Amino acid sequence: GNSVTQMEGPVTLSEEAFLTINCTYTATGYPSLFWYVQYPGEGLQLLLKATKADDKGSNKGFEATYRKETTSFHLEKGSVQVSDSAVYFCALTNSGYALNFGKGTSLLVTP
Amino acid sequence: DVKVTQSSRYLVKRTGEKVFLECVQDMDHENMFWYRQDPGLGLRLIYFSYDVKMKEKGDIPEGYSVSREKKERFSLILESASTNQTSMYLCASSRPGGGSGANVLTFGAGSRLTVL
User: Are A32 and A8 in contact (CB under 8 A)?
Assistant: First the structure.
């Protein structure tokens, strides 16, 4: 079945540091891949997505590239801000219905 | 601008009580979902629905049921609440098909349920 594995947190970075959160997946066929973000006290919201191999999703300075050869979709940001502190979830779907989520990675950015 | 509304942010119930969690979306989405979120376990799918009166079991349906009588409303029911159902419950909706917005889940703010 489908599954997503993402690096365990928490991740603590200083402001303006480079961020990478690793995500790898197992799926049949050609899934769509997503990163969602959950700010404290809120529901999840879409950060970015990619629907086919070599696509790059980007939003708010975050990027992730769909790598089919390594089954990965790592999230990166060149310079994090305190306001990026949140929990980040990698997810996939190849059914067109529900998403399979990773366990989430908590990010804390300190001034 | 609220698009997925969950009726209760916080609930406290007793073991054995029947619990209803309500979710309403105003985006005319066909698909609706209930997930539970637990520390260290991430999000796990309980049930989903792709049309009115249709439902499909997710990964952890035991102890839950759902109802979808209208397109915009999807209810999660705990027939007899137990302490291991203490959790954050997240409702989401999406539209199927192609295009840039397809299969993107829009989530509600969550309902935190405590069962004593």
Answer: no
Provide, as residue numbers in chain A, all residues whose Cβ is less than 8 Å from the Cβ of B44.
101
- Pairing state between β A19-21 and A75-77: antiparallel
Question: What H or E segment, with its residue span, contains residue A81?
Answer: none
Nearest CB to B48: which of A32, A34, A98? A98
CA-to-CA distance for A108 and A19, rounded, in angstroms?
A: 11
Q: What's the pLDDT score for residue A98? A: 78
What percentage of chain B exceeds 90 in pLDDT? Answer: 81
Q: How do residues A52-80 score in pLDDT, each as one tens digit?
A: 899 999 999 999 999 999 999 999 999 99
**Is any Cβ of chain A less than 8 angstroms from the Cβ of B110?**
yes
A85: tokens are 């502190």
Q: Where are the beta strands (DSSP E) in A1-111?
A: 3-6, 11-14, 19-21, 23-26, 32-38, 44-50, 56-59, 62-65, 75-77, 86-93, 100-101, 105-110
**pLDDT over threshold 90, residue B104:** no
